[in-house]
Design a protein that fits this description.
The chain is 31% helix and 16% strand. It is of the alpha/beta class. It has two domains: 8-136, Chitobiase/beta-hexosaminidase domain 2-like (Chitobiase, domain 2); 142-317 and 354-366 and 381-460, TIM Barrel, CATH 3.20.20.80. It has an eight-stranded parallel beta sheet. The longest helix is centred in the middle third of the chain and has 17 residues, at 275-291. It is globular. The protein starts with 7 loop residues before the first strand and ends in an 18-residue tail after the last helix. The protein binds ligand TNX.
């Protein structure tokens, strides 16, 4: 009963494992101690248990976390970077992995197998897990969730809460959409007005805010401890009204724009081809690259309806080279594939529908031709700001129809863009845009449970080539597993939407 569904689950008969009062977490191998401590914290949240972490061999009833070569769960005995094995027996639980990342995902699986029991009023003696042997590793190296902190700002504490929610689903990238028309959210020492002015408000006149560089580093570190890589996005040359309001010189006519709190897109553009704009791009990319240990830096490039087509191509090519010169791999929304002079290896993020329209597939293929790969975020499946149902008070409906749990679940990344299979797909990402989403509770309710579906699409094995995707993804079976997740969401006070198609547990409280 795990989400995402593991590669191999072999239940066996026999007495279950009981998490008894003297249970400990026994750790061995490089990095196991930190993973053990995260497991201990998680069990405190999930089921109000306080397990000590010890660097001693496991005794009867303990949970062992072992990190060593050969534990990485590949069928041929080689190590998968994020793979793990989980063995549950009456004597104890053993999580084996070749890396801390793999062990951490094994921990998430164990959390899901254990019954969650809220604030200590649950049945503490009844924490049992049936015997099972799980072998697991991801289909894609990149499973992402995007949070738009530009439209509505979310504090560092709220972003951490979001990270806590995504890791339970083995999502390993947090894409932060840091800049847009409505706000600039990362402090830039060399251009301080970006946050002083451009960070002062947000969609619907909301509170505004920004991360200092220390706060941003702290978010990155919190994520890294949990095997989540932060992908910062500086969206340009469109979606830049907040920057244009902060510095007159960045505007095509040299006149500062007023701050913007509405929901239109496509109306703003930097003054492309200008020396000051070039310096601006070099400065913001350099500072953000320096704050980012991860390999990817996202330049946006979407919906640049106010930039002349030739200027757009010249601008994104130059900006992407600046990213590469700063040691990062550029990422761009698929429109950036209009440019054929991007640095080799530039990653594209596809956001058109699961059935491509217009020229979106052609633009996406540009990245593959250039030696790069693709992240798939089809907006009719993976845009989690789209309403669940007609008439919802929160969410957008521009895709033409609501995105149900089924829509988020029943699609396959290798069947979206003709000619683009797994060899050219880096992974999948669910995106939460926040024009209409103002609080972290609303964020959670838009994301859960649909993120569980996208996470499973990104982690679990591909359907057989011959199998229609509708047959491969059994919504009833998935819904039963999602219902178990709700126990964890209830126990940790995480909000979710009680969509149809899921046999939800009785509401608590
Ligand atoms: C499209 S798709 C956008 C965002 C909006 C979102 C709303 C893409 C890369 N950009 O600017 O927030 O739709 O659903």
């Amino acid at each position: 009963m795990v989400v995402p569904r593991p590669v191999l689950t072999q239940p066996s008969p026999g007495s279950p494992f009981v998490l008894g009062p003297t249970a400990r977490i026994s750790v061995a191998g490089p990095g196991a101690d930190a993973v053990g401590r995260l497991l201990s914290e998680a069990l405190a949240d999930d089921c109000s248990r306080d397990l000590p972490v010890v660097a001693e061999p496991p005794a009867f009833g303990d949970i062992a976390v072992v990190i060593a070569h050969g534990e990485g769960a590949h069928d041929d005995g080689s190590d998968s970077a994020e793979g793990y094995t989980l063995e549950v027996a009456a004597e104890g639980v053993r999580i084996g992995a070749a890396t801390p990342a793999g062990a951490f995902w094994g921990v998430q699986t164990l959390r899901q197998l254990l019954p969650a029991a809220g604030d200590g009023d649950g049945d503490r003696d009844g924490l049992t897990v049936e015997q099972v042997r799980i072998h697991d590793h991801p289909r894609y190296a990149y499973r992402g969730a995007m949070l738009d902190v530009a439209r509505h700002f979310f504090t560092p504490a709220e972003v951490k809460r979001f990270i806590d929610a995504i890791v339970l689903l083995k999502v390993n990238h947090l894409h932060l959409h840091l800049t847009d028309d409505q706000g600039w959210r990362i402090h830039i020492e060399s251009w301080p007005e970006l946050t002083r002015i451009g960070g002062s408000t947000g969609s619907d006149g909301s509170r505004g805010g920004f991360y200092t560089q220390d706060e941003f580093r702290n978010i990155v570190a919190y994520a890294a401890e949990r095997n989540v890589t932060v992908v910062p996005e500086l969206d340009m040359p469109g979606h830049t009204n907040a920057a244009l309001a902060s510095y007159p010189v960045l505007n095509p006519d040299g006149v500062a724009r007023p701050l913007y709190t509405g929901s239109d897109v496509g109306f703003s553009t930097l003054r492309t081809g200008d020396a000051v704009t070039r310096r601006f791009v070099r400065d913001v990319v350099r500072e953000v690259a320096a704050l980012t240990p991860g390999p990817l830096l996202h330049l946006g490039g979407d919906e640049c309806l106010s930039t002349a087509p030739d200027d757009f191509v010249a601008f994104v090519e130059e900006a992407a080279h600046v990213v590469a010169e700063n040691g990062k791999t550029p990422v761009g929304w698929h429109e950036m594939g209009k440019a054929h002079g991007l640095p080799a290896g530039t990653v594209g993020q596809y956001w058109d529908f699961t059935t491509p329209r217009d020229r979106s597939a052609e633009y996406a293929v540009t990245f593959v031709r250039g030696g790069g790969s693709l992240i798939l975020s089809p907006s009719d499946a993976a845009y989690l700001d789209i309403v669940y149902a007609e008439g919802d008070p929160i969410g957008q409906d521009w895709t033409g129809k609501p995105t149900t749990l089924r829509d988020a679940f029943v699609w396959d990344p290798a069947r979206v863009i003709p000619g683009v299979g797994d060899a050219h797909i880096l992974g999948v990402e669910a995106a939460l845009w926040t024009e209409t989403v103002g609080t972290i509770e609303e964020v959670e309710e838009m994301v859960l449970p649909r993120l569980a579906a996208v996470a499973e699409v990104g982690w679990s094995p591909a359907p057989a080539d011959t199998e229609p995707v509708e047959a491969a993804r059994d919504l009833d079976e998935f819904g039963a597993r999602v219902a178990r997740l709700a126990e964890h969401w209830d126990a940790t006070g995480t909000r979710y939407r009680r969509v149809p198609d899921v046999p939800w547990p009785e509401p608590v409280g």
